[in-house]
Design goal:
The complex is a heterodimer of chains A (262) and B (313).
Chain A: E1 4-17, E2 20-26, H1 28-33, E3 39-42, E4 54-57, E5 60-61, E6 66-72, H2 76-83, E7 89-96, E8 107-113, H3 118-129, E9 138-143, H4 146-158, E10 163-167, E11 174-175, H5 178-183, E12 191-196, H6 199-211, E13 216-219, E14 235-237, E15 243-245, E16 252-254
Parallel strand pairs in A: 8-9, 8-12, 9-10, 10-11, 12-13
Antiparallel strand pairs in A: 1-2, 1-7, 2-6, 3-4, 3-7, 5-6, 13-16, 14-15
Chain B: H1 2-8, E1 15-17, E2 20-22, E3 26-28, E4 51-56, E5 69-72, E6 75-78, H2 86-99, E7 105-109, H3 114-126, E8 130-136, E9 140-141, E10 147-148, H4 153-166, E11 171-174, H5 182-191, E12 196-199, E13 203-206, E14 208-209, E15 214-215, E16 221-225, H6 230-243, E17 248-251, H7 257-265, E18 270-273, H8 276-279, H9 283-297
Parallel strand pairs in B: 3-18, 4-7, 7-8, 8-11, 11-12, 12-17, 17-18
Antiparallel strand pairs in B: 1-2, 5-6, 6-16, 9-10, 13-16, 14-15
Helix pairs in contact in B: 3-4, 4-5, 5-6, 7-9
Classes of the chains: A alpha/beta (262), B alpha/beta (313).
Chain lengths: 262, 313
């Protein structure tokens, strides 16, 4: 497994919606080694404050060496990153963690909620490249409102996916939760659901899949200091007891392995 | 990095901790470098002065519920809960890799009772490849109402004595800063036979989320580390250097060679790099490279010239 610590050039910074930013970085080594579901640790400032790197799932990679991350400005680290301009260099560690397990499943369903949409684009592109997949994956995307959802949906539409949309306020697509949309699909034990989003969303998807005996993989988000299994700060409670670590055991887990009733 | 390695051979960076010889004074701090393998993609591990591994207990420990960490100004709080694989798995699964690195391996140990520390020392004394033991005395003594061993000179001495009696290895006692006078504990463990002391462990701290009115850590309180604690650590190393004659290993917020050499001037003969390794996996090598440059530029005969060379008055 190749991992790199590199200073990479920021090629483009786009404000996708209010407070939502996408960075395109020239990171050929990391992009080439990455698989969907993996993440990078990004140093947000050169000094001592903010001190720790921030983890971001890989949003998209391109064959010409570009890597994208997508994030909402939520604190000092993301604020600083949102201010970075093209031409600046950022220190990246990655690719880190284990990506989605990409089986032979004929019917893949990708469910992204909010910033959990980020890794779904990389995953969707991967399915496109897999020519043996007869049935294109279903894509369900949810966000608070149309302003946040529509710009992110565009990337999936550009790739030729049909997108089922849901918004919390009903301003676009289905008025309600992505779980309700997922219920309308005819999932079988031959399907696989891939999901990333807020914890309550993933818990609801897990329960739905469990009831219908549908395999479900989730990508979890936690705070972490190192991203490489040293700090042990990113503990994720397991159903069998004890903890896994989001960075080195995950961030993608079989939903059934995790403890959801906290 | 090749040129640095070649030139390094001309420089005398060796230091000794009791009868433990290190090729340079830069080692990792326990709990910030895993079992070293986690860093093999990024670090030339053979360059390290020593590797201090994640604290080991007799039985495996699952650790605390999340959230376990929280970033604070120039530092971080952690309440990992001493999660580790336990001494049996450490010896069978982790030691073979570690002992093949060609770097002294210092094993940090922790327990709930003097007896546990004793048993750990006995087990590790039999394990091939262990160069020294670092005793974490910041743990609560279950038999004495949960008071941390490290806050009571007598209890700290009792642990030190038990470990010394159970093995021939050099014993380093890692001091807690959460005391009124760190020199009292330092002197007590020196008298009890410690070959060296390392300091400081984390400072107990806390952070609160105003929105939810909840503590940021599930454990409510946790240990503060990182550059924020460096001045406190430096002061304590300086004080301990006046009080004891055994070697001192400086720890606390070290991220650069300048930081490390400040600790050496204050009296440390070696240093440990901790939280900085989370931010920059190559932090130890960065410290070492900076030290090489300094020693050469200042035309020092040896890096040892720095130890305790603080000028006062």
């Amino acid at each position: 497994m190749s991992q790199f610590q590199q200073k990479v050039e920021l090629i483009q910074s786009e404000v996708i919606a209010a407070g939502i930013v996408r960075l395109t970085l020239s990171a050929p080594d990391i992009a080439a080694a990455a698989v969907p579901g993996q993440f990078v640790m990004v140093q947000t400032a050169p000094g001592l404050d903010p001190l720790l790197r921030r983890p971001f799932s890989i949003h998209q990679v391109s064959s010409d060496g570009f890597l994208q991350i997508l994030f909402k400005v939520v604190g000092r680290g993301t604020e600083r990153l949102a201010q970075c301009r093209a031409g600046e260099h950022l220190s990246l560690l990655g690719p880190l963690g284990n990506g989605f397990a990409l089986g032979e499943s004929a019917h893949a369903c990708l469910v992204g909620g909010g910033m959990g949409i980020a890794p779904m684009l990389f995953l969707a592109s991967h399915f496109l490249r897999q020519s043996q997949v007869a049935v294109p994956p279903r894509v369900i995307l949810g966000a608070r409102n149309s302003e946040e959802l529509v710009p992110l949906m565009g990337d999936f539409l550009d790739l030729g996916f049909e997108v089922l949309a849901a918004t919390d306020d009903g301003s676009f697509g289905y008025h309600g939760l992505v779980t309700d949309v997922l219920k309308t699909l005819n999932l079988t034990s031959q399907s696989t659901v891939y999901s990333c989003g807020p914890r309550p969303m993933m818990a609801a998807i897990h329960h739905l899949c469990q009831n219908q005996h549908v395999p479900c993989q989730v990508s979890v988000e936690t705070v972490m200091a190192c991203g490489m299994g040293a700090c042990l700060g990113c503990a994720v409670p397991l159903r069998a007891g004890g903890y896994a670590h989001a960075c080195s055991d995950g961030p993608v887990f079989d939903a059934g392995e995790l403890l959801w009733s906290l | 990095m090749e040129p640095v390695n070649v030139k390094m051979d001309e420089l005398d960076l060796r230091v000794s901790i009791g009868n433990l010889e290190l090729k340079n004074p830069v080692m990792t701090a326990s709990g910030t470098f895993g079992y070293a393998r986690e860093f093999e993609s990024y670090v030339q591990l053979h360059r390290l002065g020593a590797v201090v591994v994640k604290g080991i207990s007799l039985e495996p420990r699952a650790g605390n519920p999340p959230p376990r960490i929280f970033e604070t100004a120039c530092g971080m709080l952690n309440a990992i809960g001493l999660e580790n694989v336990g001494v049996d798995r450490f010896i069978s699964e982790k030691m073979p890799y570690l002992s093949a690195l060609g770097v002294p391996v210092i094993v940090n140990i922790l327990g709930d009772s003097v007896e546990e520390y004793r048993q750990l020392a006995e087990r590790l004394a039999e394990a091939p490849g262990v160069a020294a033991i670092e005793v974490n005395i910041s743990c609560p003594n279950v038999k004495k109402g949960g008071v941390a061993f490290g806050t009571d000179p007598q209890m700290a001495a009792a642990v030190t004595e038990a470990v010394k009696q159970s093995c021939q290895l050099p014993v380093i006692v890692k001091l807690s800063p959460n005391v009124t006078d760190v020199t009292l504990v330092a002197k007590a463990v020196e008298e009890a036979g410690a070959d060296a002391v390392s300091l400081i462990n984390t400072l107990i701290g806390m952070a609160i989320d105003l929105k939810s009115r909840r503590p940021r850590l599930a454990n409510v309180i946790g240990g503060l580390s990182g550059p924020a604690i460096k001045p406190v650590a430096l002061r304590m190393v300086y004080q301990v250097a006046q009080a004891v004659s055994i070697p001192i290993i400086g720890i606390g917020g070290i991220a650069s060679a300048e930081d490390a050499m400040e600790f050496m001037l204050a009296g440390a003969c070696a240093v440990q790099v901790g939280t900085a390794s989370f931010v920059n996996p190559r932090a130890c090598e960065h410290v070492l490279d900076g030290m090489v440059t300094y020693v050469r530029e200042q035309k020092l005969e040896s890096v040892r010239d720095l130890i305790g060379a603080l000028r006062i008055g």
